[in-house]
Amino acid sequence: MTLATKDLLYYFNTVRYFHDAHFNEGKLPVKEAYVEQRALWLAMESPGSRALLIDEINKAPRDFPNDLLHELETIDFTVAQTNQRVHEHKEKRPIVLITSNGERQLPDAFQRRCVYHHIRFDETILEKAIEGRRDQYGPLNPGLIKTAMRRFLAVKS
Asked: What is the per-residue DSSP string for 114-132?
């Protein structure tokens, strides 16, 4: 499945709609009942603080980052199946946190609108992660942990 910006806004359950229409003696049900709000729409409408996490955006289709920018700049979209227009005030724009593992370059226009925080992955961070989960796995040989860490870090670099 490829992710489109529309998928962050809403989902229209077409299969359920046609199923219900078939068993409703040909009378079409109200389409609005088959629209499910998704994360970006919910973040736009939620009271108080609004935040949305998009993990590993570099794995999304190439046009996704720029499409996302458009949606965040306009805060305005139409649900195609119902012609319902959703328009929010600019101050309702959510805070969007995005992760990327850097496997693919993101568009320049997108990067110019982002604030970066690079997390350097090193032995110290790896040790803290292992220490935080040590109780889940029971006692492990410290030498084994050091060897595994060296091999893991060698693969990552």
From this structure: ---------HHHHHHHHHH
Q: How far apart are CA 140 and CA 52, in angstroms?
A: 37
Q: In the prediction, which pLDDT does 1 show?
A: 39
Pairing of strands 95-98, 51-54: parallel
For residue 16, what pLDDT band results from cuts at 50, 70 and 90?
Answer: very high
Q: Which two tokens stand for residue 96?
A: 């969007």
Task: Return the closest-CA partner of residue 65 out of 118, 92, 105.
Answer: 105
**Any idea how long the chain is?**
157
What pTM, to 2 d.p., does this model score? Answer: 0.69
Q: Is residue 106 within 8 Å of 59, Cβ to Cβ?
A: no
Q: Are 139 and 96 in contact (CB under 8 A)?
A: no
DSSP E strand stretches across the chain? 10-12, 35-37, 51-54, 76-79, 84-87, 95-98
